[in-house]
Amino acid sequence: MNRDTGSDADEGSLEHVALHRRKRMTTIEKWEAGVPAWRLVMDLNDKVALVTGGGRGIGRATAQQLAAKGVSVAIAARSTAELDEVVTEIEASGGRAIGCPTDVTDKAAVHQTRDRVMSEFGRIDILVNNAGVAIHNPIVDVREEDWDLNIAVNLKGTFLCTQAVFAHMCERGSGHIVNVSSVSGNRGHVRGAAYCAAKAGAIALTETTDAEGRPHGVKATVICPGPVDTRMRRENHPNDVLENLGQPEGIADAILFVLSQPDSAHTIELIVRTPLM
Ligand SMILES: NC(=O)c1ccc[n+]([C@@H]2O[C@H](COP(=O)([O-])OP(=O)(O)OC[C@H]3O[C@@H](n4cnc5c(N)ncnc54)[C@H](OP(=O)(O)O)[C@@H]3O)[C@@H](O)[C@H]2O)c1
To answer: Would strands 126-129 and 48-52 be described as parallel, antiparallel, or unpaired?
Structure first.
């Protein structure tokens, strides 16, 4: 008879793991109870996530999938109509969500959103920095304002949101920050000067976040998707063959995968190739 679970299941058996999950033991408690580290898949139920750029595309799919796993989701973007739609969909499916109109380039707005999530949900376990823009042009034609916007949303916004939740996560001794970069952050391409530079910065920022966070139990991961069928992609590449594109749900799957990984197998960078690559 197992003392913790009151069952006859063998230590380490799937039944034993399931019983421990039902008891909602913390990872440390499971470890101490002798469950093998590779089986300690994180249970997302009852966690709280802030997803930026969650009004459409990859962020929307991520918010929906998190909510379906029992996560309370705060969704931040500028378009209130899109936020309202996602919140309504999540609530209709029995999930819990709030829409937080936010421009991630505005530090005061980011802090206001952080404070609202804290007051409504009590804490922030997960931050998905997904908000992004892509304005592509050959180097000679890049306008200064377009350079600044690419960097402001994709890189500075990621930093401001990270900074806003970081101390809170470190104090609690847990948290996971997932940054949505791009394959364009690994390898520059024609017409991508500002976007590629911003996305490369987001990859480096993830490394720093992880290095500073892990001693305090806070992890960071960067997801680098290939081309995905969203408004951003369609606006920049109107002649794409749709079958060659990934789907937002596939990238959301990847985000949920890294969030569910045990501490013993932390993924710092995940490249999600799509048919065009
Ligand atoms: N689609 C692709 O092929 C692809 C490939 C690799 C990586 N990515 C990355 O994936 C992420 C999501 O892009 P997507 O393809 O899903 O694009 P999308 O459909 O255009 O969605 C972008 C989201 O970001 C939000 N956003 C933009 N500027 C913002 C700001 N200043 N403050 C707050 N939110 C802002 C948008 O909402 P509002 O406009 O209402 O603010 C929207 O919700 C981006 O970081 C993008 O770079 C996309």
So the answer is: parallel
Residue 51 DSSP SS3: strand
- How far is the C-alpha of 149 from the C-alpha of 143, rounded, in Å? 10
CA of 58, closest atom in ligand 1: 16
Q: Whose CA is nearest to atom 46 of ligand 1?
A: 132
- The Cα–Cα gap between 116 and 166 comes to 16
Which residues lie closer than 8 Å to 62 by C-beta, 6 or more apart? 51, 54, 128, 130, 248, 251, 252, 255, 256
Asked if 263 and 40 count as a contact pair (C-beta separation under 8 A), the reply is yes
Q: Are 179 and 222 in a shared domain? A: yes
Write the residue with the smallest CA distance to atom 38 of ligand 1.
78
Do 33 and 138 lie in one domain? The reply is no
Q: Which atom of ligand 1 is nearest to the CA of 60?
A: 43
Block residue for tokens 């799919």? 61
CATH number of the domain encompassing residue 57: 3.40.50.720
Residue 21 has pLDDT above 60, yes or no: no
Which has the closest alpha carbon to 185: 198, 207, 205, 200?
200
Q: Domain of residue 23: give its range.
A: 1-40
Active site residues: 195
Backbone dihedral angles phi then psi of residue 21, each to the nearest 5 degrees: -60, -45
| Ligand 1 contact, 62 CB (< 6 A) | no
118-171 pLDDT, tens digit per residue, is 999 999 999 999 999 999 999 999 999 999 999 999 999 999 999 999 999 999
The reply to whether 59 and 183 lie within a common domain is: yes
For residues 27 and 42, is the Cβ–Cβ distance under 8 A?
Answer: yes
